[in-house]
Amino acid sequence: MEKNKGFNLVELIIIIVITAVVSIIATGVIMLKGNSKDLNLVNEDENLKEFIDVYNTILTKYYSKDIDKNGLLNAAEEGMLNFLGDKYTTYLEDTEYENILDELSENYVGIGVGISGNTIVTITPGSPADKAGIQVGDQITRIERIQVDENDSSKIKAYIKDKDINIVELEITRDGVAKEYNLTKEKVNNKVVSSKIIDGTSLGYIYISKFAISLDEQVRKELDQLEKSNITGLIIDLRDDVGGYLTAAEKTASLFLKEGEKIYSLQTSDNEISYKDKTKEYKSYPIVVLINNNTASAAEILASALKESYNASLVGTQSFGKGKVQEVEGLSNGDSVKLTTAKWLTPNGNCIDGIGISPDFIIDGREQQLNKALEILNSSLS
């Protein structure tokens, strides 16, 4: 893993998003687990001493001695996080954080699905779910013999991830028809990139489903194959890509940009740090990037870098607008707190949080968007 850049916090940054449709892996730009070591805060903060006094008073004076201490402290923790009024600052249970790492690792043991609520939103090619014929849009309505719905996302994920369960028993509903599946967990290779030559053209197409840790290596491999066919232009499809590792976005952008071109900036309360391409590698053919309202976070970083530093054209609909950075701090009980610590800015210094990126060509409909991308590339080559 790379060391974090400019932040004396942790080693890696992850950018993740939740939308009304997609909530696979928590929210925000996340730095990997660290452990707070500044115990001087406990000794010096009078307000914290007051909190401890209140806690002790409740335990010793409250009329009922049947007090759930863990519940009491959890309520206090959630109250502090909620008080900040930041929807991306949240409490993460240990399994939630592990799910994040699995989704973005090079490989993991599982069935190969990403879930929002109880809806399957991604399927890894070659995974048990893929081989069983499960499709994006299918709904999980039972796990073992327990009925679940859109409010049971955590329960479903915890069940699938349970290390003591090797065969995952699911009822999947599609178009009102339910079917049972018994899926044996396997080592899933997290292939997040696919490519092809558009039929009848010299134009390449690359689809990126998420920003896994090995994204740049996968993109480089696909680009090598496409360039052997002498492509004259490229479409990069980031539609419904909810993000992943920030370093993956940076390394992938560096495959295309010239050395010294800005990729993004991080802005804290103290300073602003810019990150630029440090590699000799770059591309020169025209690029069109496809985005939609579920294009988020790391995907937005790549899209904005290509738009503002490479002069790529963006086609589709307004992106999601996730521009905040979170740090994940490990707690003694194995859970974590995810706290907003910064914003990221586009190469031109724009904050897209809550706004999104506006495409150069606003087009509805997936086929229509692809056709417009082909039109732009063909026009640039004529």
In short:
This protein is of the alpha+beta class and 382 residues long. It contains ten helices and 22 strands.
Structural commentary:
This protein is of the alpha+beta class and about 375 residues long. Among the domains are: about 110-190, Pdz3 Domain; about 195-320 and about 345-380, 2-enoyl-CoA Hydratase, Chain A, domain 1 (Alpha-Beta Complex), CATH 3.90.226. It has ten helices and 22 strands. It has helices at about 40-45, 45-60, 70-85, 95-105, 130, 155-160, 215-230, 245-255, 300-310, 365-380; strands at about 15, 30-35, 90, 105-110, 115, 120-125, 140-145, 145, 165-175, 175-185, 185-190, 195, 205-210, 235, 245, 260-265, 270-275, 285-290, 315, 325-330, 335-345, 360. The strands form five sheets. Strands 1, 2, 3, 15, 16, 17, 20 and 21 form an eight-stranded mixed β-sheet that branches. The protein has a six-stranded mixed β-sheet with strand order 12-13-14-18-19-22, with helices on both faces. The chain has a four-stranded antiparallel β-sheet with strand order 8-7-9-10, covered by helices on one side. Helix 7 (about 215-230) runs parallel beside helix 8 and helix 8 (about 245-255) packs parallel to helix 9. Mean pLDDT is about 85; it is low at about 1-35.
How is the secondary structure organized here?
Layout: E1 13-16, E2 28-35, H1 40-44, H2 46-61, H3 69-83, E3 90-92, H4 94-104, E4 107-110, E5 113-116, E6 119-123, H5 128-131, E7 139-143, E8 146-147, H6 153-161, E9 167-174, E10 177-184, E11 186-189, E12 193-197, E13 203-208, H7 215-228, E14 233-237, E15 244-245, H8 246-254, E16 262-267, E17 272-276, E18 287-291, H9 298-309, E19 313-316, E20 324-330, E21 336-345, E22 361-362, H10 366-381
Parallel strand pairs: 2-20, 13-14, 14-18, 18-19, 19-22
Antiparallel strand pairs: 1-2, 1-15, 3-21, 4-11, 5-6, 7-8, 7-9, 9-10, 12-13, 16-17, 16-21, 20-21
